[in-house]
């Protein structure tokens, strides 16, 4: 399998999201704007530029059912954008943050969304019809550093977070009058808003890219130490696995199915991880076939390779042919991949198409005719 389409939209892309029918894409070109493009006669045309934020837009999510866009920014604000005719109209969300908003995601039922921040806080936002605005309840004093990722469990109640304090946590977000009690994980049924279900101390480094599997039975997140963690039976006694790999760290993770996940990050190439019949997770292969996987004899030069990637040149005195076995060789992305987004419709449990964007300004779409394609 290889990339289906590669589109150069900007010099650098911070984040992106798709419209429900995948005919439009919204992205931030590493500034305070959100650009919306539409595919017209096999050519991408710019339709809208959303101006409201004062600083870099750090995250975007486009709801599948209600066709709303939510944005979060370093300016500490979040907006919900509604399409009225040919215009997108913003509504300010009351976040009450004193640091940057770093990540955002709609809940599965789209009656809430979560914003993670540099203020060690997670804002759970919901709509108050009587006042016609979006308000938030805060999960405070649980994180010791910035919240880098948020992910909703399919039950619409539990939320997982990652942080630069090296931990992954799961909380209840039950709001009376907004939610009904959860099913699937008994430990969450009686939990109050903001109650911590579990804290995972698997990583000694920053953590990123937390995601739930489609069934909600497995949780995955990445560490800045070139490891990815898979957790089953989330609750008082979780079962966890750590998978180490010898390439550069991941920044984001996506479950394609309950037994396969795609990781993206500083290595510029999606990586496939899969679970065998016993439930044991392992690294399988790079997704971009144009990238040559390193041989074991070249792993000893990993530091030199990383040095070359960070500074644009190999370590002094090293020959490219001898140390750069896993470097990018004309693949779809040419710089760090920071975002991976499923291209699904409401109700899908298997992801057959997804997209990636990164610091090279490209949005790349990938397609799986069959999830087993990625294993070969």
From TrEMBL:
Gene Ontology terms: biological process: Arp2/3 complex-mediated actin nucleation
Main location: cytoplasm
Keywords (A to Z) from UniProt: Actin-binding, Cytoplasm, Cytoskeleton, Repeat, WD repeat
Single GO cellular component term: Arp2/3 protein complex
Gene Ontology MF terms: actin filament binding
A Pfam family of this chain: WD40
Gene3D superfamilies assigned: YVTN repeat-like/Quinoprotein amine dehydrogenase
Compartmental location: Cytoplasm, Cytoskeleton
Role of this protein: Functions as a component of the Arp2/3 complex which is involved in regulation of actin polymerization and together with an activating nucleation-promoting factor (NPF) mediates the formation of branched actin networks. Arp2/3 complex plays a critical role in the control of cell morphogenesis via the modulation of cell polarity development. Functions as component of the Arp2/3 complex which is involved in regulation of actin polymerization and together with an activating nucleation-promoting factor (NPF) mediates the formation of branched actin networks.
Protein family according to the UniProt entry: Belongs to the WD repeat ARPC1 family.
Name recorded for this polypeptide: Actin-related protein 2/3 complex subunit
Lineage: Eukaryota, Viridiplantae, Streptophyta, Embryophyta, Tracheophyta
């Amino acid at each position: 399998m290889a990339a289906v389409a590669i589109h150069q939209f900007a010099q650098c892309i911070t984040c992106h999201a798709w419209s429900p029918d995948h005919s439009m894409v919204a992205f931030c070109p590493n500034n305070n704007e959100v650009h919306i493009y539409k595919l017209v006669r096999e050519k991408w045309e710019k339709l809208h530029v959303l101006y409201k934020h004062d600083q870099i837009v750090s995250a975007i999510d486009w709801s599948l059912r209600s066709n709303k866009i939510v944005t979060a920014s370093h300016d500490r604000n979040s907006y919900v954008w509604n399409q009225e005719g040919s215009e997108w109209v913003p509504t300010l969300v009351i976040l009450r943050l004193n640091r940057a908003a770093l990540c955002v995601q709609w809940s599965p039922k789209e009656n809430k969304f979560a914003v993670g921040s540099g203020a060690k806080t997670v804002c759970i936002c919901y709509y108050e019809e009587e006042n016609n605005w979006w308000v938030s309840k805060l999960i405070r004093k649980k994180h010791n550093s910035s919240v880098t990722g948020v992910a909703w469990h399919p039950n619409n109640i539990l939320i997982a977070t990652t942080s630069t304090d090296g931990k992954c946590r799961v909380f209840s977000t039950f709001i009376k009058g907004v939610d009904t009690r959860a099913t699937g994980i008994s430990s969450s049924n009686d939990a109050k808003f903001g109650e911590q279900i579990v804290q995972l101390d698997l990583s000694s480094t920053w953590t990123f890219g937390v995601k739930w599997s489609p069934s909600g039975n497995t949780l995955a997140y990445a560490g800045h130490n070139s490891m990815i963690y898979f957790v089953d039976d989330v609750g008082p006694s979780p079962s966890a696995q750590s998978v180490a790999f010898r390439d550069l760290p991941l920044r984001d993770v996506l479950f394609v199915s309950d037994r396969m996940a795609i990781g993206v990050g500083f290595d510029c190439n999606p990586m496939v991880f899969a679970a065998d019949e016993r439930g044991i997770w392992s690294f399988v292969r790079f997704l971009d076939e144009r990238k040559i996987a390193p041989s074991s004899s070249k792993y000893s030069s990993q530091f030199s390779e990383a040095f070359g990637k960070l500074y644009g040149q190999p370590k002094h005195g090293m020959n490219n042919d001898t140390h750069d076995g896993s470097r990018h060789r004309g693949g779809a992305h040419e710089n760090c991949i920071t975002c991976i987004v499923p291209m699904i419709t409401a109700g899908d449990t298997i992801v057959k198409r997804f997209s990636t964007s990164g610091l090279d300004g490209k949005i790349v779409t990938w397609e799986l005719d069959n999830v087993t394609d990625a294993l070969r």
